[in-house]
Amino acid sequence: MAPPNDQTVISQxxxxxxxxxxxxxxxxxxxxxVGQTLSHFExxxxxxxxxxxxxxxxxxxxxxxxxxxxxxSRDQGSEDDTRRRFQNEAQSAARLDHENIARVxxxxxxxxLNYIVFEYIEGANLRDLVERHGGPLPLADAINYTLQxxxxxxxxxxxxxVHRDIKPSNVLVTADGRAKLVDMGLARLHQVDARDDLxxxxxxxxxxxxxxxxxxxxxxxxxxxxxxxxxxxxxxxMLTARPPFPDGTVLQKLxxxxxxxxxxxxxxxxxxxxxxxxxxxKMLAKNPRRRYQSPPALIADLSVLAEALGLxxxxxxxxxxxxxxxxxxxxxxxxxxxxxxxxxxxxxxxIEVVFSTPVDESQLPTINAGQMRPAxxxxxxxxxxxxxxxPHAAPDAQAGATTPETNSALVANAAGAARxxxxxxxxxxxxSATITPGATATQPGAETxxxxxxxPPRPGLLVVSPTARGPQYFNSLRAACSAARNGDVxxxxxxxxxxxxxxxxxxxxxxxxxxxxxxxxxxxxPDDSNPMRYPRDMIEVTGGKLSLVNLAIELNVPAPxxxxxxxxxxxxxxxxxxxxxxxxxxxxxxxxxxxxxxxVSLINVRALSNWNGLRVGEAADADEPAHLHxxxxxxxxxxxxxxxxxxxxxxxxxxxxxxxxxxxxTSIHGASMAGQGDPHVRISLRHVTxxxxxxxxxxxxxxxxxxxxxxxxxxxxxxxxxxxxxxxxDQAGVDDRNTFLEYVSWNGERNFYTGxxxxxxxxxxxxxxxxxxxxxxAIDWEAHWGRSREVLPNWNGVVWRRxxxxxxxxxxxxxxxxxxxxxxxxxxxGASDGRDVGMVGYLxxxxxxxxxxxxx
Length: 856
Known about the structure:
Elements: H1 26-33, E1 37-38, E2 41-50, E3 53-60, E4 65-72, H2 74-77, H3 80-94, E5 104-110, E6 113-119, E7 123-125, H4 126-133, H5 139-158, E8 161-162, E9 171-174, E10 179-181, E11 188-189, H6 213-217, H7 224-240, H8 250-259, H9 274-283, H10 295-308, H11 330-355, H12 404-414, E12 461-464, E13 473-474, H13 477-483, E14 489-492, E15 496-499, E16 503-506, E17 509-514, E18 520-524, E19 537-542, E20 545-549, E21 552-557, E22 569-574, E23 578-582, E24 585-590, E25 601-606, E26 626-637, E27 640-644, E28 650-661, E29 664-669, E30 680-692, E31 695-700, E32 710-716, E33 719-721, E34 727-733, H14 737-743, E35 744-749, E36 752-754, E37 762-766, E38 773-776, H15 778-785, E39 790-791, E40 794-795
Parallel strand pairs: 12-13, 12-14, 14-17, 15-18, 16-19, 17-20, 18-21, 19-22, 20-23, 21-24, 22-25, 23-26, 24-26, 25-27, 26-28, 27-29, 28-30, 29-31, 30-32, 30-33, 31-34, 32-35, 33-36, 34-37, 35-39, 36-40
Antiparallel strand pairs: 1-2, 2-3, 3-4, 4-6, 5-6, 7-9, 8-11, 9-10, 37-38
Helix pairs in contact: 5-7, 5-10, 7-9, 9-10
């Protein structure tokens, strides 16, 4: 009997199917629903199913056609928000219209069941084809099907759709050899909000034999490169009749995808050529940046392979069932591009003939003195129509252009003294008018039209520009980041320095990059000691992922006499967050030469609560380390590169770079409580030239913060430089010396050490004992690690082009740490890959010039 407070609810919805309100495996759901009708779809046969639901062959009684119908599993379709996400993802699939993708017809809900209807395809999937064949498919067939799916991905990528479940069973091949990508159950818009993502709960979705490393960590971060990885696994399966990692538990497979190289497919199939193996290897690169970056790049290489195999690129017939065709002739291969080129040349000749005709200048409008022709070509007495589209200014032409938004900021700064990094103020009057693209010239005092609205960039691209106006254009990085959604790209289209306010990026995953041909310099300059008005962290990431590309970023902290607070950082993260940096430079000016702020860091990784308690955010995954990856980067100034508080777990990989700092490369501080699991700090350095005046790896604890993580270091082909007081490792606190030694694991090869006192490269200080100080020499260092963990080290074998570089560290550059071209310089060509040891200078970004001195 119902409690007296319960109310009877009368629903007008049709009764639910018996048993459908329970969570059932796909097979049982199939048995239950065969013969039933959902809306106007009659379920004829159960075809198969997986974790997302059951698939049926069905009849559309309204249009009298056979379709495929997928019913979402009840445990995933029971909540309103999950149903909404399912429909959003079905809508993303419906955006696709391509011959190699199964088309979506309908999405609906009936009697408590959510379903999606799509094209029914008569054929066999790749998994069944391999099983029927009894082994690998013919090489031409494998390349043929992969090329077709790559074209499908190209179309999906152009519509901002990511599939996220590419695998052999999701590629059907028709009787005439057409490959069709099916099952968009995991697909989503690349720019979709995390709340509308079926994977928003953080559950790892996809198939473990074919899942990319980054999708295994967080399916919301998957982009088209994840689909390319999964397609690479599918190609591997077609070539070898096995996935790249067929053995082990689910967890072991995920770990193998993350860290292990798959066996060479040539050892399972002798038909696989070196070129095919190279394409597979690039598709399966662990780091997404090392894979094909887009489907067109993959299609280009697959087309070359197809051409080498004599595969007619315009005919998708099943090659294993037709006679081998002769390779196309040179004329046949190049006709598709030759005809458009010839037509373009003909058009160019015609334009030259027409526009080279002499013009009668007497017929041109006369421009009186003081009048100028508007940039859009309109008559001088007629303003350009509001909203007229105007060309963008070239990068070099934007320095003096302004919009009303920038004018207000510039006028506000004009009253005060100019500071390095400020944009130049606009004078109240000027002797002559300045014409910028998209603007119209007017007489002084004349009423002006508003600047033309610039055409919006592509979806998902937000532009920071001082000259552009319109949707998706912003006058500050802070405004653009506030508007950015997951997957967006914020692009800086300006040159020179622009000062920004601190950024708080909570639960965000996007990229900040420089526009092509632009050289922006993002400057942060604290002007207040109150953290409520000016936070200590310039860019704070909480529960997200940030990518920085082709940027120069500066932090200029005034001298302690001007601003009292300490503990500044340029970037702040938490455990579980991710930071990807490519081709960037970081410069930190800390105080002045007479006085520096303490505890300034370029990157600060800390526990979930900010040290000052002002902002608290959830990490993306508290059990995951903070992931930092740098490639071709420069960092310089008076700050510790990486400060780790509260014994946080961190992985930091730096490939090719220059560091020059007065402090430490890494400083690790203890926690008051032991963390979950076995926290590690893993540092990987390769081809890095680093000068650290204090030293490289510092570990500190005390009675209140006794717990430290383990420190694992992998260092290859680096130059680590210091002074007579610098240390490779410094450990101090309440642990005894032997315990301190156990914290550190080192694996190095061909590292060069220079400038150190050879009698003191590792210091261990047990502060509980009067005799607790111990120093290890360079000889002790090598003996402790042994030849297997410190391979071919070199002490003081570096010959610099400039032995004693001068000037402040924040102003030093690549030339200050270049190697002398001398036969006695053992660092030249001394790396394991045959290059010079240390940085590869030509791959590093150019460093910005120092700002002009402030006038007295």
